[in-house]
Specification:
253 residues; alpha+beta; Arc Repressor Mutant, subunit A; Chorismate lyase; 6-stranded antiparallel β-sheet; 3-stranded mixed β-sheet; elongated; disordered N terminus; disordered C terminus
Length: 253
């Protein structure tokens, strides 16, 4: 029998999945009881049971007679299906993207985001947030992006447009070159707000990509965080030197 998924149920499912992915409840460990979850989240037992039933259907939770509920597995990670051979091709892909800007404002990094971005607490960055789509695709796959611009390059604010990659605008404006790009991928679950922006269901699997654009001294001029749904094509990045002397390629994890 199909059960109607209420927004409250999806929010709870997304929260619990995020905690499982983050390691708060390791595989094989005991999961909180229905009563404990009702008390913690101040929701009905029906809401809790529907959230847990969905997690059990996905194999993340297992009910053991006499032992309660335990964590059975972690969510699977979306596959990488698009290959980019060089930094130049990465730039070409960036030029095909369009960013619908929602917010531009200054932020000082708190402890959590500073640790994630690997920057000092209290450091000041210009943050640009919005929805990115790929121009010319038959099916548009939106993604939510937060772009952090280092303070020395924040004057670029007046030149930010929907169809110009910010890091390339910084290169032209300040006459510098990006020497390296670091990329990392993280499995996440989508919150209600993120799911609404991406036109998917809350609690769906998602992929977060962090890109750090570095100078030859290793200083970041821009750090971007992109979140896309797990149903979207993601990228396998292979960066290759383009000099004539280069015969091989370097593949990032």
């Amino acid at each position: 029998m199909t059960t109607t998924l209420t927004p409250l149920y999806r929010d709870l499912r997304a929260t619990l999945m995020t905690e499982i992915v983050a390691g708060k409840f390791p595989v094989g460990s005991r999961f909180p009881t229905d009563y404990e979850l009702c008390e913690r989240f101040q929701v009905s037992r029906h809401t809790v049971r529907e959230a847990l039933r969905s997690l059990q259907d996905d194999g993340l939770l297992v009910r053991l007679p006499g032992s309660g509920t335990v964590v059975g597995a972690l969510p699977s990670t979306p596959r990488y299906v698009q290959t980019i051979e060089s930094v130049e091709q990465l730039y070409s892909a960036a030029r095909a993207a369009r960013l619908a800007i929602h917010h531009i404002f200054w932020v000082r990094l708190g402890p959590e985001i500073a640790a994630f971005l690997e920057r000092p607490v209290g450091e000041r960055w210009l943050r640009v947030s919005g929805v990115r789509t790929i121009h010319g695709e038959a099916t548009q796959h939106p993604s939510w992006v937060d772009i952090y611009v280092a303070e020395p390059y924040a004057d670029i604010r007046s030149e930010i447009t929907s169809d110009q990659p910010i890091h390339q605008a910084i290169e032209r404006r300040f006459h510098i070159s990006i020497a390296a790009i670091e990329m990392r991928h993280f499995a996440v679950t989508l919150s209600s707000a993120q799911a609404k922006l991406l036109n998917v269901e809350a609690g769906d699997a998602g992929l977060q990509t962090m890109r750090r654009y570095l100078t030859d001294r290793g200083d970041p001029i821009e750090i971007s965080l992109t979140i896309q749904s797990g149903s979207q094509p993601s990228q396998l990045m292979r960066f290759r030197k383009t000099s004539k002397a280069a015969s091989g390629s370097t593949r990032s994890p």
